[in-house]
Each structure stands twice: as structure tokens, then as C-alpha cells.
Design brief:
Elements (H helix, E strand, L loop, with lengths): L1 E7 L2 H13 L4 E5 L11 E7 L1 H13 L26 H26 L3 H9 L1 H10 L2 H4 L1 E3 L8 E3 L5 H17 L1 H7 L1 H4 L11
Antiparallel strand pairs: 1-3, 2-3, 4-5
């Protein structure tokens, strides 16, 4: 189990942070900051535990039992190489991965466009490949996806990008319909017991 400490300026701020985290389903405790970390304020922090090892063990067990195809940990370079269909990560890391990917795609598409407009020969090549290039661009366009499903809640919810346009919202609605029709929520409900980390309820961390 990995522990994270969120330093706060006062006990009041620490208590508020704890309440906010617990409202999001994240177990948190107000603790006295360890010596050496207490550089400002009253010396209180919010302690958050992450069950990385326990989660890995649960996923591996599910894989061994044949309920899922668990491939284990993957490197960042494996994410788009087809090693895994689903990559589980914390919110911060996942967001960095997605935003970086969006930026790289935009850069590469711009660079590719520059190459094709470089001279007449390249422009002719672009004309020949126009249809395939449009398909490639479409396959990497975030507006074609629209959003992603929020897993772990009782109703189908799709989170759209903050800069979504009309086409993206349309795609998000399409995603929501597909999500509602997929039966994924009922599958999660039917298998929720497999997802519980042993000892959580006994420790008051359910």
C-alpha cells in the first residue's frame, strides 16, 4: 500500500481536504506532518492510501482464473502497440498520457502536411494519398470519439473534452448510447465482489 501526503496550511484546511476527498470516495486521514516536511503552516497533512499492490494482485488473480486477459504492467511505449486493450492508471498519469498523445498527434499531422506541401512532387503524392490521409486523420481525431465512459457508477455517464465542438458532442452522445446498450454496468454489478480489496471493510476503508 502506497501512502501520499497532501500538505496543508492549517488543521482546518486539512479537515476540508479530507472531507472533499471522502466525498469522492477516496479514503483520507488528517495526520501530523512528519518532521522535515513541516515547512509551513501548522504541520498537518492529509494522508491518502493507494492500493496498487492489492489491485495488481486482484487483476492477476482474475487473469489466472480466466475471467480477464491480464497482461500485467505495461510501459508507455506499449500503450499504442496493441499489447493491451485496456490500460488502468491513476487519473493524473492517465490525463498526462492523453494530453501528451493529443499534442503529439497534432504536431505529427502538421509536420506531415508541411512535407506534402514542400514541393510539386510531394503535392502530387498527397493528391494520390488524399483519401487514405483523410481516413488516418479521422482515426486520430478526438472529435470522432467525443468522450469516454466513467466506470464505477450506477448510471451511464460519458465525460466529454473541455474544448468539445458540436461534432464532438454528437460523438459523445453516440458513445453514451453505445455505453448504455453494452451492459457493462450490469456486468460490473455482477462481479463487484471480485473487485473488493481484502481488509478494506475491516479497516473502515470500504
Amino acid at each position: 500500500m502506497t501512502q501520499y501526503l497532501i500538505m496543508c496550511r492549517s488543521l482546518t484546511y486539512a479537515q476540508r481536504a479530507q472531507k472533499q476527498l471522502e466525498s469522492l470516495g477516496i479514503t483520507a486521514n488528517v495526520v501530523k506532518a512528519p518532521q522535515g516536511l513541516n515547512t509551513s503552516g501548522c504541520g498537518y497533512a492529509v494522508s491518502v492510501y493507494r492500493h496498487f499492490d492489492e489491485a495488481y494482485a486482484l487483476l492477476k488473480k482474475a487473469g489466472d482464473e480466466g475471467r480477464i486477459n491480464f497482461v500485467g504492467n505495461v510501459e508507455g511505449t506499449d500503450v499504442f502497440a496493441g499489447k493491451a486493450e485496456v490500460v488502468v492508471t491513476d487519473g493524473f498519469t492517465g490525463n498526462v498520457l492523453l494530453k501528451t498523445t493529443e499534442g503529439v498527434i497534432k504536431f505529427m499531422m502538421g509536420a506531415l502536411k508541411g512535407v506534402f506541401y514542400k514541393n510539386t512532387v510531394n503535392k502530387l503524392a498527397a493528391a494520390v494519398l488524399k483519401g487514405d490521409l483523410k481516413e488516418m486523420k479521422k482515426s486520430m481525431d478526438v472529435n470522432e470519439v467525443g468522450g469516454t465512459a466513467l466506470i464505477g457508477i450506477s448510471k451511464p455517464v460519458v465525460k466529454a473534452h473541455g474544448s468539445s465542438n458540436a461534432a464532438s458532442i454528437f460523438a459523445a452522445v453516440r458513445q453514451a448510447i453505445a455505453f448504455a446498450d453494452s451492459g457493462l454496468i450490469s456486468d460490473i454489478n455482477a462481479n463487484i465482489e471480485y473487485m473488493k480489496i481484502k481488509g478494506e471493510e475491516e479497516n473502515g476503508q470500504a
